[in-house]
Amino acid sequence: MKGYVAARVAVRVRDGHVFNVIAPDDNDLDANLDSPANGTQNHGLSIQQRVDRVRVAIGRRVAMVRTKLTFRPDVFSYFVGFRESHLAALEAGTLPCTMGTLGRIGRAMNITLLQIVRGEVDPCGGFTSIEDERARVSRQIRVARESQGMSLAELALKAGVPGMMLGGIEFCALDPPMPALTKICIALGMPVHWLFTDCPAFLTDAEMRRAGMVLGDVAIVPPPDDDGWR
């Protein structure tokens, strides 16, 4: 029998599709969303301002991870392989990072990228590889794009990222910059932390009924299979 997991969710409807998003611990990594239901206050902000807010939020999370692990900046930099000035700029939110940057932290500290972007260090399986994390992000973007009926070119145009970059991200051929991933999430209407989960972008009506999902409530939902959500 397939196991079940409980997830606190926020549900939004767009063009007849029901979108399922794991509710975050707080909202600064949802700076790309305009949904009042998610508690965000982004009306009137430009895309670049939202990207900047997410960059600062990720810096805060890195600092939270380091503090919870009780590392001084110089020691943490040594273990991760950063220059101390590089770490300081990252934590201050003045240095855009890539998935590879976060992967170096995850590998050195044996924590997942999802834990990093949430500022958590509690054991939950640990870091596997940056290749696995890139494959997860690639799958999340591709499934969400296809579920919304967009081609690669259409999503690239909507997100304001080069088509070759988006293709490289979906085919795991490059180290995705976090600003580009944030813009892609803006275009898809998804929070940034969703990229690092196995949560589907949306549920069909049948899946909603099977899960017994209620708006704003706690839903009991089956975990995704290896090849997607069933």
Report on the structure:
The chain is an alpha+beta fold and 230 residues long. The protein folds into two domains: 5-24 and 130-221, Orthogonal Bundle (434 Repressor (Amino-terminal Domain)), CATH 1.10.260.40; 47-118, lambda repressor-like DNA-binding domains (434 Repressor (Amino-terminal Domain), Orthogonal Bundle). The protein has ten helices and four strands. It has a four-stranded antiparallel β-sheet with strand order 3-2-1-4. α2 (73-80) crosses α3 (84-92) and α7 (152-159) packs across α9. It is globular and about 45 Å long. The chain starts with a strand and ends in a 9-residue tail after the last strand. Residues 1-27, 31-41 and 213-230 have low confidence and may be disordered.
What characterizes the major β-sheet?
4 strands, antiparallel
Q: How would you classify the helix and strand content by structural class?
A: alpha+beta
**What would you call the shape?**
globular
Which fold name corresponds to the CATH topology of the largest domain?
Answer: 434 Repressor (Amino-terminal Domain)
Please provide a brief summary of the model.
This protein is α+β, with helices and mostly antiparallel strands. The protein has 2 domains: 5-24 and 130-221, 434 Repressor (Amino-terminal Domain) (Orthogonal Bundle), CATH 1.10.260.40; 47-118, 434 Repressor (Amino-terminal Domain) (Orthogonal Bundle), CATH 1.10.260.
Describe the structure using short key phrases.
single chain; 230 residues; alpha+beta; 434 Repressor (Amino-terminal Domain); 2 domains; 4-stranded antiparallel β-sheet; 4 strands; 47% helix; 10% strand; disordered N terminus; disordered C terminus
